[in-house]
Structure formats: structure tokens, C-alpha cells
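One such given next:
>
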Amino acid sequence: MLNKKILVGMCAAIMAFTPVMVNAAVVKAEAEEDTKKSREDLKIGVSWKTMQEERWVTELAEIETVCKEQGIEMLYQCSENDSQKQVGQIENLISQDIDMLIVMAPEKGAMDNVLKEAHDAGVFVCYYEQVGGETYFDMSGGNDYYEVGQAITKTIADMNISGDICYLLGDSAGGSGVINFKDGMQDSMKACDVNVVGEQFVANWDPATGMGYVENWLSEYADTLSAVLCMNDGLAGGAVQALENEELDGKVLVCGQDCDLAACQRIVAGTQVSTIRKGGIDYARQFTETAIKYYLGEMTEDDFEMTDTNSLGEEKPFMSYPAIIVTKDNIDETVIDAGVYTREEVYGE
């Protein structure tokens, strides 16, 4: 049994030590607050999947503009749709002590381990598109893939067309995003009395490859083909080229997405029915500014209306951005007046 004097002494020692422990915790919290970086001290890395489509060139440039305006250092690398290369590029960005990573990949799942590594190294991971559980991230943004898919084909579906149609789809390596695009496109067309005679995924979203598929379909269905439903504007460009070669441009309906300048020019020329403006400089700016504010604590999770799920099953903030259908009837309002392109660029005037 402990001696009473010893017991009293132990209690006194504990009482004396407890405030020190509390004070140490307070000091640690204050130190962490003091070392929190200011906006001008941030270093942002951007890992971009491709510069193949005009949209990605424009949006990367706007991210850089936002960083320059705020005095933030930005580093970027582009993998040109090579997942293995992109993993190495992200590891390189991590080694350069970035604080935040903005990433967009051709294969989300292939990035999972390296994005977890980034997070564990103290990097705030921001995914530039909706993830849906396929990879790790701390914040994401963009459009709902299924709803965008519906929007891609909506204008043609509203024409209540009939006859043979073909689907020219993106790279299947894109995972759930491409599948959700496809489901939305096909569901949007259900009310039309059409017969699907062709459906093809296109590796790397390559327009030349897509053009080849359309040429093959035309060799058999040129007289009955009503529409080629394309998942993006690059593929739509390939489809229109194949149709031009058979003097069917403007006769067979074509749609796409991304609001590329060439697509807008085809819309006013009558060789493409519609495109989808789902990003652009306004989205790139809003996403980048939001990510910076959230990282710095100027925004909280309560400021986001939606969430997205990362590969750990965690619900994380999602910055939702609406998609806009662009047609010949509204292109002045949705593209020119919105400042996406000038009238001279779209109309060639």
C-alpha cells in the first residue's frame, strides 16, 4: 500500500503538470495557425491530361491567369492521355513541394495511389471533374456526367427523328464518366423511332480514328443514316469530315460537347446541330478560385451545395457547374455574349 505522504505528493505533482500539458496543446494549435500559408506563399501544381482539344488549352490558360492575379506560383505538366506518364509527372510535382494539386486524368483509377501519396505528403488534391468513387481527391468540381450525356443528344432527340443512327463514343478507359455520358445520350434518344446500326468507343478520343468508323458506317448505311451522335466536338469534327467526303454534311445530323470554336463554326454553317458548353474560362476561374479559398479556410464544406465520393468512400465538397446546350438559335447569347468567343471568330466576319 502507498504511503499517505507519497500519495499526496504524487497528486500534487499531477496537478502541477496538468496545466503544462494543456498549455502545450494550445501552443501547438497556435503554432499551426501561425505557419498556415498566405495566398502569396502558395504553390499550385496542375496535372493536365491533354491539350488535344481546344477546351483544355483555354481552361489551363485561365487557371494560370487566376494564379498570376493572386500572386500564386503555378507549375503544370501535361501527360497527353498517357496515365503512366501522368503518375510520374504528379510525383515530380509533389517533389517540388506544391501545396495544392489540380488534376484531370484520362483514367481516374490509375491515379488513385499517387493522389493518395500526394495527400499523405500534405498536398490538397483537387479533381477537375466529377469522380464518382474512382480515385482519391479532397475537393472536386464540374458537371453531372449523366445529365451532360442527356444534353448532348437532346436537341436531336427533340426533333423526333427516325431512321438509322450511330453512336461515336469517347475512350472507354475514361471509366464511369464515359459510361454515364453514354447512358444519358441513349436515354435521351429513347422516345425517337430510331435503329442503332453503329456504336463505337474511340481510343484517346482521336478524331481521325472516329472519322474512320463513320466512313465504315457510311459504306453500308449512307442512304438511311439520320444522325451520328458524338460524345465530344473532336469526334464530331471527324464525323463531319467523313460526311463531307460523301456530300452528306448538313444532311446527316451531328452533335457533340465541349463548345470548341470549330464546333461553333460548324453550328452556324449547319453541319453540326449542337454542342455543350460545360466548362470554359468561367468554369476554370470559378473552380480555381474556389479551391484556393477552401484550402485557405475562407470557405467551408457548408458553402458547397453538393458532394462527390472519393475512392475511400468519403463524401467531399463538389463545386457543381451547369452545362449549357448551344445551338444555332442561341449561339449569340450562350457563346458570343458570354465572352467565350468573339462574333468574328464564330461567324468569320
